[in-house]
Amino acid sequence: MLNKALLNTEVQNFIRNFNSEVSKLAFAGSPFKNLTVQELMQQIESRNKSEKKLPTWFKTPNILFPPKLNLEQTSSEITAKYKASLLKGNTLADIAGGFGVDSFFFSEKFNTVHHFETNKSLSEVARHNFDIFEKKNIACFSEDGLNAVLNKKYNAIYADPSRRHNSKGKVFFLKDCQPNIPDNISKLLDHCDWFLLKTSPMLDISVGLNELQNVSEIHIVAVDNEMKELLWILKKNTSKLLSIKTINFTKSGSEIFDFKWNESATATYSLPQKYLFEPNAAILKSGAFELVSEKLKLNKLQKNTHLYTSESLVDFPGRSFLIKKVVPYSKTEMRAALIFKKANITTRNFPETVETLRKKWKINDGGNVYLFFVTNFEGEKQMIVCSKI
């Protein structure tokens, strides 16, 4: 149950202004008689962890935070806003609502949002925060959302199933998540126009397609070149070709690359030219390597070397580099070329690891030099020396 003592002005000031190591609080004990030290530590730790992920929650007074595990599993503001942009309608049900970040942003697109969460404490925290934000169009229900929505009809249903199981620990197949979406998707689609599913970025797309029915779109979402989530849009009786959209949110905007699942393409290959292009994490997850070559008119270095090259600079969904030098990977050539002590190292289809290369050639991390150790389409090992554009 929610301890309302946490909302005391003096307590809130203490939580928001606690700047020491949280572990010190464990030894000092709680300075408030109506609160345990564990309750204070949870609020301080989770609030601190929310600063970059959930800045709106972090900066808003009187917000309450869940345990760290629940916070780790919730969407970031960036990804939650993106999800909300994918759907539209009057009513939406969030059947595994958790901390409520997704419901918050869905409420800006839908007239009515139903937030379901079986964890009563987490449901109460979400309800309190929605009241603070004056989100009057969100209704919270501390019950099983999967069963609840089968008695109603919604424009959209959203699920972010828990990827932890009481007996199995962390799980990776959709059928092992809670709630079990694959076994219930037919019934769920009878009660909505759109079904949106969030899954782990680690899930293999082919495995997900084998478990699910009626997939219309898959959105592969990365933030600052780190994979965050896979989003699956399902519609009953969908007949369109499956669309794949990769998006990487960066500090300067977003990088987008779209294609159709199983769309055929033929890559072209060449030795390194003037520019080198490294695809972002979302494209690497998609596996659309030949399509990138064909659609952007770029040459790959080798079939399994997922780097691209061109004599012309293009608007590329990833990092772009100016090639300074290409060095054959031999002792003589390498010793002559390694005139710097610091560099950023990347390997692609190369037999040695970054750590091994650093030790072998005594190269520290950092600086403005970028080294790509690769295998080219002629089977030769090379070091490509670049500067970032």
Helical proportion, percent range: 25-40%
The count of DSSP E runs of length 2 or more, i.e. the number of strands, is 19
**Global morphology:** globular
- CATH level 1 class label of the largest domain: Alpha Beta
The strand line-up of the biggest sheet is: 3-2-1-4-7-9-8-10-11
Identify low-pLDDT runs. none
Q: Sheet bearing the most strands, described?
A: 9 strands, mixed
CATH superfamily of the largest domain: Vaccinia Virus protein VP39
SSE class: alpha/beta
User: In the CATH scheme, what's the topology name of the largest domain?
Assistant: Rossmann fold
Alpha plus pi helix count: 15
Kindly estimate the percentage of residues that lie in beta strands according to DSSP. Answer: 25-35%
CATH architecture of the largest domain: 3-Layer(aba) Sandwich
Write the layout of secondary structure elements.
Layout: H1 9-16, H2 22-28, H3 37-53, H4 55-59, H5 68-73, H6 77-86, E1 91-94, H7 101-106, E2 112-116, H8 120-132, E3 138-141, H9 145-149, E4 154-159, E5 164-165, E6 169-170, H10 185-189, E7 192-199, H11 205-211, E8 215-223, E9 226-234, E10 243-250, E11 253-260, E12 268-269, E13 275-279, H12 281-286, H13 289-296, E14 299-302, E15 305-310, E16 318-328, H14 331-337, E17 342-348, H15 354-361, E18 364-375, E19 381-388
Parallel strand pairs: 1-2, 1-4, 2-3, 4-7, 8-10, 12-14, 17-18
Antiparallel strand pairs: 5-6, 7-9, 8-9, 10-11, 13-15, 13-16, 14-15, 16-19, 18-19
Helix pairs in contact: 2-3
